[in-house]
Amino acid sequence: xxxxxxxxxxxxxxxxxxxxxxxxxxxxxxxxxxxxxxxxxxxxxxxxxxxxxxxxxxxxxxxxxxxxxxxxxxxxxxxxxxxxxxxxxxxxxxxxxxxxxxxxxxxxxxxxxxxxxxxxxxxxxxxxxxxxxxxxxxxxxxxxxxxxxxxxxxxxxxxxxxxxxxxxxxxxxxxxxxxxxxxxxxxxxxxxxxxxxxxxxxxxxxxxxxxxxxxxxxxxxxxxxxxxxxxxxxxxxxxxxxxxx
Length: 245
Fold this sequence. Notes:
Elements: E1 7-13, H1 20-25, E2 33-38, H2 45-53, E3 59-63, H3 69-83, E4 88-91, H4 103-111, E5 117-121, H5 128-131, H6 134-151, E6 164-167, H7 168-173, H8 185-195, E7 200-204, H9 219-243
Parallel strand pairs: 1-2, 1-4, 2-3, 5-7
Antiparallel strand pairs: 4-6, 5-6
């Protein structure tokens, strides 16, 4: 537990045989539940997770029969964490790109009742441009700008960052089946949270690269998917929040 709150972590994993062990081994002791969602991996990810499960009762493994994308896998982890009675649920990717020491900073505003959803902000780190690949640095800034229009959260600076924490009440109010299943997941979450008038805040975190992760993003395909989604999401949010209601 963390300051009296049960903490769960949803861990989407796709072909992370070299990385998922590191995520498990470095998980803070206060975490009560690790829901590892294998997204139909083709490597030894499931085998490795099962080995860790033999000595770690905090781990729950969910195996997707079909690849659901990072959003679909993350939401399955959310649902399991709700079922297990967690008060706050983080998302930490299975590629070890999220620094475990940043988790308390993301949890504190949730536990203190100051936010419903905290979002790690890598772009505010003074060394981010030295660590993050240049094409990602530029792309994240552009997509974050577009996401401000689409979501209505003008203060959120790193829309594509996946290191987040959400409180139980908000998770129960969200219709997780409406959340985008692919790489638009983070943007879709922001749009739906805005429609529910939830409090979302930035939390500075450390950008982590070159720890053995392998990018699975097909840049052109994902960029087109993002642009199409964000354009439509802006008009959808205006209609649903200000006209239809």
